[in-house]
Design brief:
By secondary structure, the protein is α/β, with parallel strands linked by helices. It has 9 helices and 14 strands. The strands form 2 sheets. It has an 8-stranded mixed beta sheet with strand order 6-14-13-8-9-10-11-7. Strands 2-1-3-4-5-12 form a 6-stranded mixed beta sheet, with helices on both faces.
């Protein structure tokens, strides 16, 4: 689907008292961490809806593929639910993408938020439906993140103001300025979408990448695969979030600089996005300006409506 701005589905803004339904498209989760995250959501003024069958397990998955997809579909179809937050990332989101009810999602757009393996769902909803989705904390991570991370998430889904990210520890890998819609996700997950019906088009986008537990040679291999496949042709800009447990960060920077040699795009590192305690919320599909010199990513409009 063409995700040009005039085809974007902007989800309704949340207000105090609205209900956030919780889905588990990927792996099972620790119940104590989950309960802490639910408490954070409720402290923000939201009600939460925890489906009775949310806690199913099927090995390293939170239930069968059909169960996990059905849960997402039910939450989108339920008019009493105003937004959907994911319990945890992990593994398995890719397995249930073909089971999602994209027509109902188009008819009933809602805020959908998560990160890590959930990047597959975020990207699919944006690519297939034009829905603005949110790369941000999962419920099971909310109790462990910084207060700034919690506040950034709250503002992203409730404020009429465009999000602005100013990096205190930004690193200019390549200077420049770019304005384009943003696509954000986990590198490994986005790479695994290659060759599937859910592969996103990065052309004309600012791409924000993060990852965890992937050593330098694997980062190199994935970026090389995407480059050879033409994924980066026409990309507007690149920003790097955290690369937790991926080896020396300077090695990652060198790999990125090498892979993107010959691309005339700004490249900025140091975004507080990803698997660290700082994981700021990034809306997918909204136009933003990436300033690699002044270390900022500023969005042009609110990612929510009404």
């Amino acid at each position: 689907m063409d995700t040009r701005k005039n085809l974007l589905l902007i989800p309704p803004r949340l207000h105090s008292g609205d209900t956030i339904g919780i889905a588990a498209p990927a792996s099972p989760f620790d119940r104590n961490r989950f309960d802490q995250g639910v408490g954070v959501l409720e402290s923000m003024g939201f009600r939460t809806f925890v489906p009775d069958d949310l806690f199913k397990k099927n090995g390293y998955l939170a239930g069968t593929d059909s169960h996990r997809a059905d849960l997402v579909n039910r939450l989108f179809a339920d008019s009493s639910i105003q937004a959907i937050a994911c319990a945890r990332g992990g593994f398995g989101s890719l397995r249930m993408l073909s089971l999602l009810d994209f027509q109902t999602i188009i008819e009933k757009p809602k805020i959908f938020i998560g990160f890590s393996d959930i990047s597959a769902v975020l990207s699919a909803l944006y690519t297939r439906c034009g829905l603005v989705t949110f790369h941000g904390p999962t419920v099971a991570s909310l109790g462990d993140v910084t207060p700034e991370t919690q506040e950034a998430m709250r503002l992203a889904i409730t404020s009429e103001l465009p999000p602005e990210i100013w990096l205190q520890n930004g690193i200019t890998l390549r200077p420049g300025l770019a304005s384009a819609p943003v696509l954000c996700g986990n590198l490994t997950t986005l790479c695994h979408l290659l060759g599937t019906p859910f592969e996103p088009s990065l052309k004309g986008h600012i791409l924000v990448l993060e990852d965890r537990g992937e050593m330098g040679y694997r980062i190199d291999r994935m970026l090389t695969q995407m480059k050879i496949a033409g994924c980066f042709d026409g990309i507007a800009g690149l920003a790097l979030g955290s690369f937790e447990a991926c080896g020396p960060i300077n090695e990652i920077f060198e790999i990125v600089d090498n892979i993107f040699d010959g691309y005339s795009i700004p490249i900025l590192a140091g975004l507080d996005v990803g698997h660290g305690r700082s994981n700021l919320t990034i809306p997918l599909g909204i136009d933003a300006t990436l300033d690699a010199v002044n270390h900022s990513l500023t969005f042009h409009e609110s990612p929510t409506a009404g």
